[in-house]
Amino acid sequence: RSHGSIQRGGLALTRATRRERRPTMRDPSPLLASRPSRRYLNPSHKPAWYAARQKTITRAQKRVERRLWPIFGLAFAFDRRIDLDAAFGRSAVDRSALVLEIGCGSGEALCSLAASHPDADFVGVDWFRGGLAAAMQGLDEAGAAANARLVRADAATLLRDGLEARCALDEVLVFFPDPWRGSEGRRIVRPEVVQSLSPLMQDGGRLHLATDVEGYADEARAVLASCCDAEARWEEVACDCCLPRPSTKYERDGIAAGRGVNDVCWRFVRGSVVRGCGD
Protein backbone atom coordinates (compact mmCIF):
# COMPACT_ATOMS: atom_id res chain seq x y z
CA ARG A 1 0.00 0.00 0.00
CA SER A 2 2.76 2.37 0.83
CA HIS A 3 4.55 1.37 -2.37
CA GLY A 4 1.40 2.14 -4.39
CA SER A 5 1.10 5.55 -2.83
CA ILE A 6 4.68 6.26 -3.75
CA GLN A 7 3.94 5.24 -7.34
CA ARG A 8 0.88 7.42 -7.47
CA GLY A 9 2.86 10.27 -6.02
CA GLY A 10 5.63 9.68 -8.51
CA LEU A 11 3.11 9.60 -11.37
CA ALA A 12 1.55 12.84 -10.19
CA LEU A 13 4.98 14.39 -9.97
CA THR A 14 5.78 13.23 -13.50
CA ARG A 15 2.55 14.72 -14.87
CA ALA A 16 3.15 18.00 -13.07
CA THR A 17 6.64 18.13 -14.51
CA ARG A 18 5.24 17.54 -18.00
CA ARG A 19 2.66 20.27 -17.52
CA GLU A 20 5.38 22.71 -16.53
CA ARG A 21 7.35 21.87 -19.65
CA ARG A 22 4.39 22.03 -22.02
CA PRO A 23 3.79 25.56 -23.52
CA THR A 24 0.46 27.02 -22.47
CA MET A 25 -1.44 30.21 -23.30
CA ARG A 26 -0.53 31.51 -19.83
CA ASP A 27 3.10 31.41 -20.87
CA PRO A 28 2.95 32.24 -24.61
CA SER A 29 6.63 33.11 -25.03
CA PRO A 30 7.69 29.64 -26.34
CA LEU A 31 4.87 29.72 -28.90
CA LEU A 32 5.60 33.25 -30.05
CA ALA A 33 9.37 32.99 -30.18
CA SER A 34 9.40 32.15 -33.89
CA ARG A 35 6.61 34.53 -34.91
CA PRO A 36 7.11 38.05 -36.27
CA SER A 37 6.63 40.90 -33.81
CA ARG A 38 4.14 42.74 -36.05
CA ARG A 39 0.80 41.61 -34.69
CA TYR A 40 -1.54 43.09 -37.31
CA LEU A 41 0.12 43.18 -40.70
CA ASN A 42 -2.92 44.29 -42.73
CA PRO A 43 -4.06 47.86 -41.85
CA SER A 44 -7.38 47.36 -43.66
CA HIS A 45 -8.27 44.39 -41.42
CA LYS A 46 -9.49 45.43 -37.98
CA PRO A 47 -8.51 43.30 -34.95
CA ALA A 48 -11.30 41.60 -33.03
CA TRP A 49 -11.35 44.14 -30.19
CA TYR A 50 -11.91 46.99 -32.68
CA ALA A 51 -15.57 46.06 -33.12
CA ALA A 52 -16.00 44.62 -29.63
CA ARG A 53 -15.22 47.98 -27.99
CA GLN A 54 -18.30 49.48 -29.64
CA LYS A 55 -20.40 47.77 -26.98
CA THR A 56 -18.73 49.73 -24.18
CA ILE A 57 -21.25 52.53 -24.08
CA THR A 58 -23.34 53.39 -21.03
CA ARG A 59 -27.07 54.05 -20.94
CA ALA A 60 -26.41 57.71 -20.27
CA GLN A 61 -24.17 57.89 -23.34
CA LYS A 62 -26.89 56.22 -25.42
CA ARG A 63 -29.34 58.91 -24.30
CA VAL A 64 -26.83 61.60 -25.27
CA GLU A 65 -26.36 59.88 -28.62
CA ARG A 66 -30.10 59.80 -29.34
CA ARG A 67 -30.55 63.43 -28.35
CA LEU A 68 -27.49 65.05 -29.94
CA TRP A 69 -26.50 62.92 -32.93
CA PRO A 70 -29.17 64.57 -35.14
CA ILE A 71 -27.48 67.92 -34.35
CA PHE A 72 -23.78 67.03 -34.53
CA GLY A 73 -23.64 63.76 -36.46
CA LEU A 74 -22.66 63.33 -40.09
CA ALA A 75 -22.84 60.08 -42.06
CA PHE A 76 -21.63 58.98 -45.45
CA ALA A 77 -22.10 56.08 -47.81
CA PHE A 78 -19.75 54.91 -50.52
CA ASP A 79 -22.03 56.44 -53.15
CA ARG A 80 -22.83 59.58 -51.14
CA ARG A 81 -19.93 61.63 -49.78
CA ILE A 82 -20.25 64.32 -47.12
CA ASP A 83 -20.71 67.86 -48.38
CA LEU A 84 -19.25 69.97 -45.57
CA ASP A 85 -20.49 73.25 -47.03
CA ALA A 86 -24.05 71.91 -46.85
CA ALA A 87 -23.46 70.44 -43.38
CA PHE A 88 -22.42 73.82 -41.94
CA GLY A 89 -24.64 75.96 -44.13
CA ARG A 90 -21.77 78.18 -45.26
CA SER A 91 -18.94 78.07 -47.78
CA ALA A 92 -15.24 78.89 -47.61
CA VAL A 93 -15.85 82.60 -48.18
CA ASP A 94 -18.00 82.77 -45.01
CA ARG A 95 -15.64 81.00 -42.61
CA SER A 96 -12.06 81.58 -41.52
CA ALA A 97 -10.99 77.92 -41.70
CA LEU A 98 -12.22 74.36 -42.16
CA VAL A 99 -10.51 72.05 -39.66
CA LEU A 100 -10.56 68.24 -39.42
CA GLU A 101 -9.43 66.46 -36.26
CA ILE A 102 -8.49 62.82 -36.83
CA GLY A 103 -9.12 60.74 -33.72
CA CYS A 104 -11.02 63.35 -31.75
CA GLY A 105 -11.73 60.89 -28.90
CA SER A 106 -13.87 62.48 -26.20
CA GLY A 107 -13.57 65.85 -27.94
CA GLU A 108 -11.48 67.70 -25.37
CA ALA A 109 -9.41 69.57 -27.98
CA LEU A 110 -12.30 69.87 -30.45
CA CYS A 111 -14.63 71.47 -27.88
CA SER A 112 -12.00 74.00 -26.84
CA LEU A 113 -11.13 75.00 -30.40
CA ALA A 114 -14.73 75.18 -31.63
CA ALA A 115 -15.77 77.35 -28.69
CA SER A 116 -12.82 79.74 -29.08
CA HIS A 117 -13.05 80.02 -32.90
CA PRO A 118 -16.74 80.43 -33.79
CA ASP A 119 -15.80 81.80 -37.22
CA ALA A 120 -14.17 78.46 -38.18
CA ASP A 121 -15.83 75.09 -38.83
CA PHE A 122 -14.57 71.91 -37.14
CA VAL A 123 -15.10 68.25 -37.99
CA GLY A 124 -14.02 65.45 -35.65
CA VAL A 125 -13.77 61.82 -36.75
CA ASP A 126 -13.49 58.81 -34.46
CA TRP A 127 -14.69 55.22 -34.40
CA PHE A 128 -15.64 54.70 -30.77
CA ARG A 129 -19.21 55.51 -29.77
CA GLY A 130 -18.43 56.25 -26.13
CA GLY A 131 -15.89 58.91 -27.04
CA LEU A 132 -18.21 60.49 -29.60
CA ALA A 133 -21.03 60.63 -27.04
CA ALA A 134 -18.73 62.50 -24.64
CA ALA A 135 -17.65 64.79 -27.48
CA MET A 136 -21.26 65.61 -28.37
CA GLN A 137 -22.08 66.44 -24.78
CA GLY A 138 -19.01 68.66 -24.52
CA LEU A 139 -19.81 70.48 -27.77
CA ASP A 140 -23.40 71.01 -26.64
CA GLU A 141 -22.25 72.47 -23.33
CA ALA A 142 -19.72 74.68 -25.15
CA GLY A 143 -22.44 76.07 -27.44
CA ALA A 144 -20.68 74.83 -30.58
CA ALA A 145 -23.74 73.47 -32.38
CA ALA A 146 -23.23 75.88 -35.29
CA ASN A 147 -19.59 75.18 -36.12
CA ALA A 148 -18.78 71.60 -35.05
CA ARG A 149 -19.74 68.21 -36.51
CA LEU A 150 -18.75 64.61 -35.79
CA VAL A 151 -18.32 61.57 -38.02
CA ARG A 152 -18.24 58.00 -36.73
CA ALA A 153 -15.87 56.27 -39.11
CA ASP A 154 -12.41 54.91 -39.59
CA ALA A 155 -10.36 57.99 -40.49
CA ALA A 156 -8.53 56.32 -43.39
CA THR A 157 -11.87 55.27 -44.92
CA LEU A 158 -13.34 58.74 -44.43
CA LEU A 159 -10.41 60.39 -46.21
CA ARG A 160 -10.54 57.90 -49.06
CA ASP A 161 -14.29 57.55 -49.59
CA GLY A 162 -16.23 59.94 -47.35
CA LEU A 163 -15.47 63.58 -48.19
CA GLU A 164 -16.10 65.65 -51.29
CA ALA A 165 -12.83 66.45 -53.06
CA ARG A 166 -13.75 70.14 -53.11
CA CYS A 167 -13.92 70.37 -49.30
CA ALA A 168 -10.51 72.15 -49.20
CA LEU A 169 -9.34 71.52 -45.62
CA ASP A 170 -7.39 74.39 -44.10
CA GLU A 171 -6.00 72.38 -41.21
CA VAL A 172 -5.83 68.74 -40.15
CA LEU A 173 -5.12 67.87 -36.50
CA VAL A 174 -3.66 64.56 -35.37
CA PHE A 175 -3.20 64.84 -31.62
CA PHE A 176 -1.59 61.90 -29.79
CA PRO A 177 -2.59 59.14 -32.23
CA ASP A 178 -2.50 55.47 -31.31
CA PRO A 179 1.15 54.30 -31.61
CA TRP A 180 0.10 50.73 -32.53
CA ARG A 181 3.16 49.31 -30.81
CA GLY A 182 4.33 46.15 -32.56
CA SER A 183 2.28 47.03 -35.63
CA GLU A 184 3.60 50.38 -36.82
CA GLY A 185 2.18 49.79 -40.31
CA ARG A 186 -1.29 50.55 -38.92
CA ARG A 187 -0.37 54.05 -37.73
CA ILE A 188 -2.57 56.79 -39.14
CA VAL A 189 0.39 58.69 -40.64
CA ARG A 190 1.24 56.24 -43.40
CA PRO A 191 1.68 56.74 -47.17
CA GLU A 192 -1.76 55.59 -48.35
CA VAL A 193 -3.52 57.83 -45.82
CA VAL A 194 -1.42 60.86 -46.79
CA GLN A 195 -2.17 60.18 -50.46
CA SER A 196 -5.90 60.20 -49.67
CA LEU A 197 -5.53 63.40 -47.64
CA SER A 198 -3.59 65.43 -50.22
CA PRO A 199 -6.48 65.97 -52.71
CA LEU A 200 -8.68 67.22 -49.86
CA MET A 201 -6.23 69.90 -48.71
CA GLN A 202 -6.44 73.60 -49.45
CA ASP A 203 -3.34 74.97 -51.11
CA GLY A 204 -1.35 76.17 -48.10
CA GLY A 205 -3.32 73.97 -45.68
CA ARG A 206 -1.58 72.69 -42.56
CA LEU A 207 -1.12 69.34 -40.88
CA HIS A 208 -0.41 69.39 -37.14
CA LEU A 209 0.88 66.23 -35.43
CA ALA A 210 1.41 65.99 -31.68
CA THR A 211 2.83 62.84 -30.12
CA ASP A 212 4.60 61.62 -27.00
CA VAL A 213 5.80 58.39 -28.66
CA GLU A 214 9.52 58.25 -29.24
CA GLY A 215 10.36 58.10 -32.94
CA TYR A 216 6.81 58.80 -34.17
CA ALA A 217 7.58 62.34 -35.33
CA ASP A 218 10.66 61.24 -37.30
CA GLU A 219 8.69 58.43 -38.90
CA ALA A 220 5.97 60.91 -39.89
CA ARG A 221 8.59 63.19 -41.44
CA ALA A 222 9.85 60.31 -43.56
CA VAL A 223 6.32 59.37 -44.65
CA LEU A 224 5.41 62.91 -45.71
CA ALA A 225 8.74 63.35 -47.51
CA SER A 226 8.00 60.19 -49.50
CA CYS A 227 4.62 61.61 -50.58
CA CYS A 228 6.10 64.73 -52.22
CA ASP A 229 6.36 65.09 -55.98
CA ALA A 230 6.46 67.82 -58.62
CA GLU A 231 2.74 68.55 -58.30
CA ALA A 232 2.27 68.55 -54.52
CA ARG A 233 4.54 68.57 -51.51
CA TRP A 234 4.54 68.85 -47.73
CA GLU A 235 6.88 71.46 -46.26
CA GLU A 236 7.67 71.36 -42.54
CA VAL A 237 6.92 74.73 -40.92
CA ALA A 238 6.87 76.25 -37.45
CA CYS A 239 3.86 75.24 -35.41
CA ASP A 240 2.89 78.86 -34.73
CA CYS A 241 1.39 78.70 -38.23
CA CYS A 242 -1.29 76.38 -36.84
CA LEU A 243 -4.10 76.81 -34.34
CA PRO A 244 -2.88 76.73 -30.74
CA ARG A 245 -3.14 73.16 -29.47
CA PRO A 246 -5.23 72.81 -26.30
CA SER A 247 -3.95 70.63 -23.49
CA THR A 248 -5.54 67.17 -23.49
CA LYS A 249 -5.67 64.15 -21.18
CA TYR A 250 -3.19 62.23 -23.34
CA GLU A 251 -0.66 65.05 -23.14
CA ARG A 252 -1.03 65.33 -19.37
CA ASP A 253 -0.69 61.57 -18.95
CA GLY A 254 2.45 61.55 -21.10
CA ILE A 255 4.06 64.38 -19.14
CA ALA A 256 3.16 62.71 -15.84
CA ALA A 257 4.85 59.53 -17.11
CA GLY A 258 7.99 61.49 -17.99
CA ARG A 259 7.54 61.44 -21.77
CA GLY A 260 8.30 64.47 -23.90
CA VAL A 261 5.74 65.92 -26.32
CA ASN A 262 6.69 66.65 -29.92
CA ASP A 263 4.66 69.02 -32.09
CA VAL A 264 5.41 68.89 -35.83
CA CYS A 265 3.59 70.89 -38.50
CA TRP A 266 3.60 70.81 -42.29
CA ARG A 267 2.18 73.07 -44.99
CA PHE A 268 0.67 71.51 -48.10
CA VAL A 269 1.81 73.22 -51.29
CA ARG A 270 0.54 72.47 -54.78
CA GLY A 271 3.44 72.73 -57.19
CA SER A 272 7.09 73.21 -56.27
CA VAL A 273 6.79 76.67 -54.70
CA VAL A 274 8.04 76.85 -51.11
CA ARG A 275 6.09 79.34 -48.99
CA GLY A 276 6.76 81.02 -45.70
CA CYS A 277 4.57 80.90 -42.63
CA GLY A 278 2.90 84.21 -43.43
CA ASP A 279 2.06 83.39 -47.05
- The largest sheet has its strands arranged as 1-4-3-2-5-6-8-7
Question: Structural class, from helix and strand content?
Answer: alpha/beta
State mean pLDDT (0 to 100 scale). 83
What is the radius of gyration computed over CA atoms, rounded to a whole number of angstroms?
Answer: 24 Å
In DSSP terms, counting alpha (H) and pi (I) runs of 4 or more, how many helices?
A: 11
Distance between the termini: 96 Å
Large-scale geometry: globular
Topology overview:
Elements: H1 2-21, H2 29-32, H3 48-52, H4 59-72, E1 73-74, H5 84-88, E2 98-102, H6 108-116, E3 121-126, H7 129-141, E4 148-152, H8 155-162, E5 169-175, H9 191-197, E6 201-211, H10 216-226, E7 232-237, H11 249-256, E8 262-270
Parallel strand pairs: 1-4, 2-3, 2-5, 3-4, 5-6
Antiparallel strand pairs: 6-8, 7-8
Helix pairs in contact: 4-7
Task: Explain the overall architecture.
The protein is of the alpha/beta class and 279 residues long. It contains 11 helices and 8 strands. It has an 8-stranded mixed beta sheet with strand order 1-4-3-2-5-6-8-7, with helices on both faces. Helix 7 (129-141) links the parallel strand 3 (121-126) and strand 4. The N and C termini lie far apart (96 Å).
